Amino acid sequence: MNYPLYEKLAPNTKFAVYDRFGYGYSDETDKKRDVDTVADELHELLEVSGQKPPYVLVAHSLGSLETIRFAQKYPDLVKGIVMIDGGSPEYYSNDDGSLADTIGGLPNKFRIQTGLFRLSMKSDLVVETSNANRNELKLVPDELKTLDTTALLHNYGNANTIDELREIAANGKIVVENKQTLPFPLTILTADYFGASEPIWDKTQAEFTSWSEHSKHVTVKDTEHYIHQYHPDLVAKEILELVQK
What we know:
Structural class: alpha/beta
């Protein structure tokens, strides 16, 4: 749910929001969730949507991988990237492979890595846990909260999202193997998890700056994984800074 950003961005720039296969109100797909396929799907979507490059790409969480991969494959189409608590390719390439199999364990690592919550088969707990690190959706109108709940339960544990979790390390390695210094700005926004973030996560977030000649790293205080649900003004400011360059 990205709503708080919409009203901040709309008066100042044109933007498009999309859900990958298996998320939101998008269909599911039979295609494997490898990073090249997902990046190419984004490229196709942007083409048919009529959006005009160069783009400022904004990625949250695990979306960092296909965003960087898109930039590697189509560098002339990118003006800049903003990461909203998105993991570095190096971080994800070292994933131990247990995330998709230990849904009920390692809750802090789970929330940081993906923002996906499948801690119980009870829908009320799924919604409660999902909203917990999204500021209880306090900045979202009630009618949109209802739509969000519908989409969340509709996609709960589907094959596409689980496959994406299983591909984390492999996808991260592909991006790392093709590492090149990006010629456009990269802004990395990192949640402070109200003082409870992991040291390894914080270290790799700082090191994420090595991916661009023009990088900026900001740790956003008093936030959880969905930074834009806590401080949409700050996130919008960082996005518009790149748009207006």
